[in-house]
From TrEMBL:
Domain GIY-YIG: from-to ranges: 44-119
Protein name, UniProt field: DUF2075 family protein
Pfam families: GIY-YIG, SLFN-g3_helicase
Superkingdom as given in the UniProt entry: Bacteria
């Protein structure tokens, strides 16, 4: 028997009076509730509520629903919200109500059917007693709201959408929240003093760097535009920032999120455009930043390690833009200038998200620059780390095991990654493809991905096949923009340039013959003859850099490390090089 009931009312201007005149109420889980008992639940009990119109919604939590509705009635922004639903559960405590509030905000913002009017007051993903049991109730509440037309998709379908994955309403982990609170405090202090500031956040794949970047920008915008006189019931580490002084300090502040990868940049742009008050926060390429007039108060740079130094760009036009930006900003096109210098020149304050293990091309800024960034930030007490891996359900041991596997250091079977994660190797590529198709049918967002070990013939000849392996003929991604969600992606193979920064439910990773093993020495090496990313091994005569096979090996290992960390529910592997496959099969679960 469910313990919750949803109270519905049209018009909330004087809920207290309405209680006495009567309105439609679903029975609260109390035997034959009297009017007095209902009054008590709505005046002195933690409840969650929604205020909505046909296109907008606000989700809230309160111990006193009646008083809270009166406060909302005085808020002009919410006066057109004429439909009220109150979720009452006799088992709720404050923690459960806050958790449900955050859960519904994420789902409403993730589906996009309503424009979510909530400010990001900083609800943190905190644990509490019996949370798993409460969350079972949350799913029931969702289904009840869905039956009333609030949602058109299932929870699983919503969680697969980019709007959900990159939502600024995602509740941060305690690690992310602690880091975020300190960064915001430093940003506000530096802005008050009129000095420049630069924070560095280092974290491996799946630690939530992009989520934190989006969250912080939404939080700063909310501080600027919130009604600071409105009572805030959520007791969080962010509530202290919502003051009149900080609001005045941030009035008119300019902000941007810099994302080097085009596909990811386009996806995040859509999220910002669908989130109230975030449409004027620009999502930019490094070139966009260099060419903008004026300076930004703050730039948050996702994947800072993917910024470029002076190297041959993918097109002559981009080479021209690189030169012109250097000349415009610094008066000359010096070889030592990088896109990171553009970022610093065009912003007063910066938050740089980095992971040098995700550099995948020689044109990416050199490891030496990243190391200098870290050292400087540490010396200035502006360095933060995100250590908790939150994407892959295999737990914290998974990234280290994958790295050891790719470096040939594994000597025993893979650790037990738990019942929630499928991980293993196929000896037949066709079987792995069938498994990915079956997982996509069940969970969606399951894709084949591969290292750049085959020529992209189908780019010019749509009838050509690119990857011919194990009796299969496959094609590379037919688009480099939002490939994962494109129409034919299940029948194609994505490269690093289409999936870096994205989540999948299942990833079927094809390790090509660009990564091989010497059967005699057991050494894993890079095979240049089977690597077809021209920009992936291009020398840099301008800077006097020649890349050896050992240098490129590090990039290729990084590529496969990124591909092997995309799958939330599972990762399947097929290895083309026979000696390398035999090595993998010694230590991994066989899946066919």
């Amino acid at each position: 028997m469910t313990s919750f009931r949803i109270v519905e009312h049209h018009g909330y201007q004087d809920l207290f009076a309405s209680l006495r005149s009567g309105f439609e109420i679903g029975p609260i889980d109390i035997a034959n509730p009297t009017r007095r008992e209902i009054d008590e639940k709505l005046q002195n009990w933690p409840v969650v509520y929604t205020l909505s119109s046909t296109s907008e919604i606000y989700i809230g939590e309160s111990r006193n629903a009646v008083t809270r509705m009166r406060q909302h009635h005085l808020n002009n922004e919410k006066k057109n919200l004429d439909r009220l639903h109150i979720i009452v559960d006799r088992t709720f405590n404050k923690s459960a109500a806050l958790d449900l509030e955050a859960y519904l905000i994420r789902l409403f913002s993730g589906e996009g059917q309503f424009s979510v009017l909530n400010r990001n007051d900083g609800i943190v993903d905190s644990d509490y007693f019996n949370r798993e049991k409460y969350q079972e109730t949350f799913d029931e509440i969702f289904e009840e709201l869905r039956s009333r037309g609030f949602f058109s998709r299932s929870i699983e379908e919503i969680q697969n959408l980019d709007l959900y994955k990159f939502s600024p309403f995602k509740a941060p982990s305690m690690e992310q929240a602690t880091t975020g609170a300190e960064i915001v405090e430093r940003f506000l202090r530096d802005k008050r003093l009129g000095v420049q500031g630069e924070e560095v956040v280092q974290g491996g794949a799946g630690t939530g760097k992009t989520v934190l970047a989006v969250y912080l920008l939404k939080l700063l915008r909310d501080i600027e535009r919130s009604d600071v006189s409105e009572e805030r019931e959520a007791d969080t580490m962010f509530s202290e920032f919502f003051t009149a002084e900080n609001q005045e300090l941030l009035t008119g502040f300019t902000a941007g999120l810099v994302i080097p990868q085009q596909s990811l940049r386009n996806s995040v742009k859509k999220v910002f455009q669908n989130t109230p008050d975030m449409g004027d926060i620009e999502v930019l390429s490094p070139f966009d930043v260099g060419e903008k007039e004026g300076t930004f108060d703050i730039l948050v740079v996702d994947e800072t390690h993917r910024l470029n130094h002076r190297a041959n760009q993918p097109s002559g036009m981009q080479n021209k833009r690189f030169r012109e930006i250097n000349e415009g900003l610094f008066g000359e096109d010096r070889d030592d200038l990088t896109q990171l210098d553009w970022i610093r020149e065009k912003s007063h304050q910066r938050i740089l998200m980095i992971d040098h293990n995700q550099t995948v091309r020689p044109a990416d800024i050199r490891k030496q620059i990243v190391d200098e960034l870290v050292t400087q930030a540490q010396n200035n007490n502006r360095y933060f780390t995100l250590k908790s891996q939150m994407r892959v359900k295999a737990g914290s041991d998974y990234p280290g095991f994958i790295r050891a596997l790719l470096e040939g250091r594994v000597t025993e079977e893979a650790p037990d990654f738990g019942n929630e994660y499928e991980f293993g190797i196929f000896s037949d590529l066709g079987n792995m493809r069938d498994a990915i198709i079956e997982r996509d049918r069940k969970f969606e967002l399951s894709r084949l991905v591969a290292g750049y070990a085959w020529m992209w013939k189908s780019k010019r000849d749509r009838d050509a096949f690119d990857i011919e392996e194990g009796g299969l003929k496959l094609r590379w991604n037919s688009t480099d923009k939002d490939w994962i969600n494109s129409k034919n992606s299940l029948n194609e193979v994505g490269s690093i340039h289409t999936v870096q920064g994205y989540d999948l439910n299942y990833a079927g990773v094809i390790i090509g013959r660009d990564l091989r093993m010497d059967p005699h020495s057991g050494e894993i090496y890079f095979d240049r003859t089977n690597y077809f990313d021209k920009k992936g091994f291009e020398n840099n005569p301008r800077l006097g850099i020649t890349y050896s096979d050992q240098d490129i090996l590090e990039y290729v290992r990084n590529i496969y490390s990124v591909l092997l960390s995309r799958g939330i529910r599972g990762t399947f592997i097929y290895v083309c090089d026979e000696p390398l496959r035999e090595y993998f099969m010694k230590y991994l679960l066989h899946l066919d």
